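> agent: user asked for a holo structure of the chain below bound to zinc ion. Plan: (1) validate sequence alphabet, (2) canonicalize SMILES, (3) run complex prediction with ligand conditioning, (4) return tokens. Step 1... ok. Step 2... ok. Step 3 dispatched.
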Amino acid sequence: MPNKAKIPTSVALTSPDRGKLVVWAVIGVAVLALAYFAWGAWSSRSRAQDVAMLCSNPKCGYTRAEPLQVGESLPMTCPRCGQRTLMAAFRCPKCGTPNIWNENRNALPPTKCRKCGRENYHD
Ligand SMILES: [Zn+2]
Ligand SMILES: [Zn+2]
């Protein structure tokens, strides 16, 4: 395997087996680090998007964590109240209230939280 000879040059000076072990250890650490960062990115993303859709019908208040999927268009039919009132939304970082983006209601940003009034910008 000529392409593999390049990787363990420094560690292969001792013995080939030990070199192999170090390489595997490095790979293991790299995989763990990658998994850690992937998990961190995933968990922070899922935290930010635990409300991605909100029914604008005040009597309904249905929320959905999954953002708009391919083939779906806004406003969507709400599975709870059956009206075309499901829009892209976010959870207020300050008070946790779900809000529909102004951009999705033909209004101008920023979207003010309907509860605490915090100004939010679409990223
Ligand atoms: Zn609804
Ligand atoms: Zn708020």
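> agent: step 4 complete. Summary for user: The two ends are 48 Å apart (CA to CA). The chain has two domains: 11-48, 49-114.
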